[in-house]
């Protein structure tokens, strides 16, 4: 009997496809660099309207192959040919946590179990959008920051995710939306976000 990490891993092994970020190797002239030309990761963050500017191409840290094989077995690496395109959390957002440590409400536990019992009903296997956070763990995603909103563009088949920072509240009775409803609020240099209805809940409706 597979554990749930194994079942999710096999599901995504068949579902993920290879795509490459556009212009991923173009050096941004605004990036502060060290004397040897490498990006200076200790330099102050760029700013926009007094806040850190999150604009740019982002990628979740890639998981070493050994970590996959220690959990999913050596056959998984042979089956999943594009490990360099994903992060372990796309297979299980709670990777490494014990079931009692997973921060889910009872309705979330029930929804999670329904998807475990029927993994082929997961949106990605039907060529439908995964939504956030799953899209952020595959390949790269781009953030575009404007004064009143931040837009996330992924390399997958999902629509753009808009995070409004103009002070609006979340809708009380939102219409279904694959990318949900998001609002954010700056607290000093920290952006705090609140996510609304997400794609999995919509898929179940």
What does this structure look like?
- The chain has one domain.
- The chain has helices at 4-15, 65-72, 74-79, 106-117, 199-204; strands spanning 47-48, 51-52, 56-58, 141-145, 149-154, 161-164, 182-187, 190-195.
- Helices cover 21% and strands 17% of the residues.
- The radius of gyration is 19 Å and the shape is globular.
- It is of the alpha+beta class.
- The relative contact order is 0.15.
- The longest helix is centred in the first third of the chain and has 12 residues, at 4-15.
- The chain starts with a helix and ends with a helix.
- The strands form 2 sheets. A 6-stranded mixed beta sheet has the order 3-4-5-6-7-8, with no helix packed on it. The chain has a two-stranded antiparallel sheet with strand order 1-2.
- The model is unreliable at 1-20 and 199-205 (pLDDT under 50).
Pattern of helices and strands: HEEEHHHEEEEEH
Instruction: Report the average pLDDT across residues.
Output: 78
Question: What is the helix content?
Answer: 10-25%
* Low-pLDDT ranges: 1-20, 199-205
Number of helices: 5
Strands in their spatial order, largest beta sheet: 3-4-5-6-7-8
- Main pleated sheet: 6 strands, mixed
Number of domains: 1
N-to-C CA distance: 30 Å
Q: What proportion strand?
A: 15-25%
What overall geometry do the principal axes of the alpha carbons give? globular
Strands, count: 8
Radius of gyration, Cα only, in angstroms? 19 Å
Give the oligomer, counting copies of the same chain as homo and different chains as hetero. Answer: single chain
What class would the helix/strand composition place it in?
alpha+beta
């Amino acid at each position: 009997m597979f554990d749930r990490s194994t079942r999710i891993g096999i599901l995504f092994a068949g579902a993920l496809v290879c795509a490459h970020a556009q212009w991923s190797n173009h050096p941004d002239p605004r990036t502060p660099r060290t004397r040897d030309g490498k990006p200076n990761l200790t330099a102050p963050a760029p700013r926009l309207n007094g806040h850190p500017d999150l604009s740019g191409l982002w990628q979740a840290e890639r998981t070493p192959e050994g970590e996959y094989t220690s959990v999913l077995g050596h056959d998984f690496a042979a089956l999943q040919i594009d490990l360099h395109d994903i992060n372990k959390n796309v297979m299980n957002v709670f990777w490494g946590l014990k079931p009692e440590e997973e921060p889910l409400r009872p309705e979330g536990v029930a929804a999670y179990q329904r998807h475990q019992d029927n993994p082929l009903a997961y949106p990605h296997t039907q060529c439908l959008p995964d939504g956030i956070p799953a899209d952020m763990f595959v390949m790269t995603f781009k953030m575009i920051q404007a004064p009143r909103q931040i837009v996330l563009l992924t390399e997958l088949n999902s629509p753009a995710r808009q995070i409004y920072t103009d002070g609006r509240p979340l809708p009380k009775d939102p219409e279904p939306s694959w990318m949900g409803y998001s609002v954010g609020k700056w607290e000093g240099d920290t952006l705090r976000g609140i996510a609304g209805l997400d794609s999995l809940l919509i898929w179940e409706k």
